[in-house]
Design a protein that fits this description.
Protein name: Twitching motility protein PilI
Pfam families: CheW (PF01584)
Helix content: 10-25%
Strand content: 35-45%
Organism: Variovorax soli
InterPro entries: CheW-like_dom_sf, CheW-lke_dom
Shape: globular
Oligomer: single chain
Strand order of the largest sheet: 8-1-2-11-10-9
Order of helices and strands: HEEEEEHHEEEEEEHH
Number of strands: 11
Amino acid sequence: MANRDALRAFQSRLASRLQAARTSGVSASWLAVEAGEAKYLFPLGHAGEIFPWTPPQSVPYAQPWFLGVANLRGGLYGIVQLSTFASGEPPSAGSEAARAQSRLVALNEMLEVNCALLIDRLVGLRGVEAFTASQAPDGDAPAWLGHAYTDAAGERWQEINLQALSQQPQFLSIGA
């Protein structure tokens, strides 16, 4: 119950910050998250609702990055472990303490894919002004990878185009 109240409080603060950003003219372009060892930026227009960790029902003969399906607020969503999908490395088991910080970020309904990405930690909102440099993706990078940004602390943030990701055959083919 406390986790649910904390999540509601966080979502309320996030909604307030988004509204304040809209009215003050400051643009928050991305939802910043951490998954595995990497830091990612999701375009706000592509990200949907944020859910607390809900253990999915496993699906046999699925890719290692596809954790299964879960009922999230009455809808059936496929759960993808972002760190495993992006890196191609075997999935990490993760402790219960780590799962307490984990969140499921659903793709926006307009993308027409009932999918949620398992991330390790929400970091907050980021705008272009939070970064000091950007680099276009390499020519051989997957189509769903956007620019890489560097913040003032020297941390590298990778933008993920969730719309392009939701249309990739590799992402849509969960069968092993």
